[in-house]
Amino acid sequence: MYYSLTELLEKIILGEDSTIEFKREMPHRDRMAEEIAAFANDEGGVLLIGVDDYSEIVGLELQELERVEKTVVEICEDSIEPPIRIFTEKLRLDDKNILKIEVQRSLFVHKAPNGYFTRQGSSKREMTTEQLARLIQSRSQARIIRFDEQLVPNTHKATLRESLYRRFITEDAAEDMIEDLLLKRTLLVQEGREIRASVAGVLMCHDTPDDYLYNSFIQAVYYSGKVKDANYQIDAKDFRGPLDQQIIDAFKFVQKHNEVSARKEIGRIDQPQYSMRAVFEAIVNAVVHRDYSKGESKIRLFMFADRLELYSPGALANTVTIEKLRYSQATRNELLARLLSEITLDDDVEKQVKRRHFLEGRGEGVGIILNASEQLSGKTPIYELINEELCLTIYAAKSLQ
Predict the structure, then answer these.
(1) DSSP letters along 91-114, please?
(2) Which of 217, 227, 306, 394 has CA atoms 20 to 30 A from the CA of 148?
(3) Count of structural domains within the chain
(4) What is the pTM of this model?
């Protein structure tokens, strides 16, 4: 689908087919949503706005071109479930303006306002119940192949940054062996003749995973009060690097705002609001166990005057329940867990969290969170499931003063 201008002109001359659709002008929002969802539910494709059904380039006024592009992006965000990431490009063909919209084959099944659509030849068709069931089954390979091991459309080997993937292969690996080693680690995935980055590969080995996996970052906000109120917002950050860096950045955000009170008796006694060991475990758990197939939300960390709240998208994995959390071990993203268990912490963080690697001692995290936090504040942290998000509330210790 990466046509040069010459290739694109040839495609226009040949007319519409399974991979390309022409629109003289911007259609109704719902119809546009159906066209985009149909491509995403099939093998992907290109929409050209400014080309009519007879392959004539009619073009768009420059002001209209800007408006159409903005509208298409809004449609992908607001009118399609789950939202679709597209690539738009403004082009000049025959001295006329057109908008090229590239839609990749999706990992998910997408619904437009009027139902589920797919491509058949040069047009879209609403899927039958049987077609929809087959598509959902084929794209729910996360039940068979874990989601973090699936390929990410529109990626390739170069999507992975060498400085990041080198952490997971032998240091003396010959250049001609690197691709095979990345495939063995499932940081790359082969499909037919194509080699793509896996979900875990993007999350761990790309500078900004959110470029490819929507909302795969941590949002952190600190309020001086006890409610979400912009008037009391003191600090806010979005952490968008590879997952291990996101964990460290979020950890340091809490550390920055973790107030320490003191009392002088025989000796000085310092007491922080939160156990940083518990905070580290909580952030790691949120990152490792979140459902990355849910692009509607990101991990959200809120600090208030009296508590910390951490939200991770996705219901509990397998048969785990809130009541069993302390004693159960079920990893939604096994590959991510293995990769994080191989990365060492710097000395300062290691000293605070009492471990050498990001992930160690599977199944111990929840116990550490509950015990360390309760010992400090006298209140047991609370886990809740809210609209298929796991929310953890850790209460702040009262000031010694």
Answers:
(1) EEETTEEEEEEEEEPPSS--BBTT
(2) 394
(3) 3
(4) 0.69
